Structure formats: C-alpha cells, structure tokens
Amino acid sequence: MVKRWALPAVLLLMSPFVSAHDYWLEPKSSFPSPGTHFDVSLFVGMDLTPEKEHPYQTERVESYVVKGSGATDAKPVEGRKPAFSVPLGKSGDVLVALVRKVAHIELTAEEFNDYLAHEGLPHILQARQNAGIAGKPAREKYTRYLKAFGRAGSGDGQVFTEPVGHTLEIVPAKDPLSLKAGEVLQVKVLFEGKPLAGGTLFAYGRAGKEIRKATYSCGEDGTAEIRIPGPGIWSIRLIHMRECVGCKDADYESFWTGITFEVR
Known about the structure:
The chain has three helices and 17 strands. It is mainly beta. It has one domain. Strands 1, 5, 7, 8, 9, 13, 14, 16 and 17 form a nine-stranded mixed sheet that branches. A hairpin with an 8-residue loop joins strand 16 and strand 17. It is globular and about 60 Å long.
C-alpha cells in the first residue's frame, strides 16, 4: 500500500476536467436511534462537498439493496429527498447499496487525458499515447456503484464486510462504524468478483468545513489500508476503466464505486 497526498490546488486548477463531479450516498447520521429512520442522501459534488442533492429517480436506478439486521421495510419513494429513508427496528446494522444506470459522455482529447491523469488512470493514458490516439476525443460509458453504512443501537458490522455483488466494489475488512480517530481501515477492491490490483483509491474526510484528502494504491491482492485521522463523514472511492472492446457507442467503459460512513 502506498499513500499519496492530493495534488496542490494550484496544479489541479490547471486541468479543465477537474470540475468533473462525483456522486455518493451520504447518511444524515451513521448512528440513528433505534425505531427511527436511516436517512441517506444522494449527493453530487466534489471532494465530499455536496453541491446538489438528487431525489430518488427510478429511471436512473439500475438496482438497489437494503440489508442488515436493523432494516425493515425500505421501498424507496419516487422523487423523495433523501433518496432513501429506511425504517429501523430496535437495533442492528443497515447497508444501503445503489447502482445507477449506465450513462454516456464524449470528451475532447484534452478533457479526457486530464481526467485520466486526475482520477488515477495512468495506464489508460499511457495506452492512448502508445497507440498514437492521445490527440483524439473519447466516448465513455460509465456506471456508479455506491454504498452507505449505518447502525441503530448495537451491531457487529458483519454486513459491511460482505460483498453485495456489484461489478466494482470496495469491501471493508472490518466494521467501519467501530473505527476511532487515528485507526486504519483495510479495504479490498473487487472487480467482477476478483481482487483488483493497482487501483487508485481516494479517501475524503469531512468534519465541519474541513476536508481531508489522501490517495492510496491497491496491492496485488486488491487491498489497501486507509488511515482515518479524525472523526466525521468519510468516503472512499475508486474508478476502474478499460477499453470497450466491440462497443459501438463507446471507446471506453468505466466503473465508479464508493463507500460512505461516519466515524465518531
């Protein structure tokens, strides 16, 4: 595992594609009271700073999963904010997982190359350069796989350490809701059910207006150890991309995944 701190802001501002936005599921609190609701918003923004909240939109949802001993009836409501409001039982853990439908984008050569450099995808950039196509625009199709963790009362965290079957998925090795400031969370990245080696993980922590950022590289076994230096909302995300062989509507396909939880 190798940790790299984020690039200085002055360098990031030079990239026209840095304004690309991310999506994540964010609990109002990862520790709601038993018998209430686990409210989870779908935010879009940058660096764990929300700019817009999306309601639940059936037309944009490929699938969702709500599981755990703390969850009861959890059918989402069209147009509602927050996107998920899970009724809770007396005590237990709850996991909300969402897969967004495939979307498409076309970028200029400069936009796409900057995006690859900024999002930890140097192998794709190198392949474009080797093939002599770094000066050409690119068509991309992408899918987002998101998870959020919560606990009403007590729980053992087991549901958070089990894959839900997403094509690209970050799986904690231990209960993330038991973490204390200064501890380390080991995670494993799975792509199509197998460990993904060499992926770049981005970790963001937000406490008040302060945002902490760091990047990590997955080992050969797909694992990385993420240091959690302080309390707040934490998000860990990763993008995996490959050439879209045989695709008529895209040159590349990417898979975006993220987990979000609170540390007290």
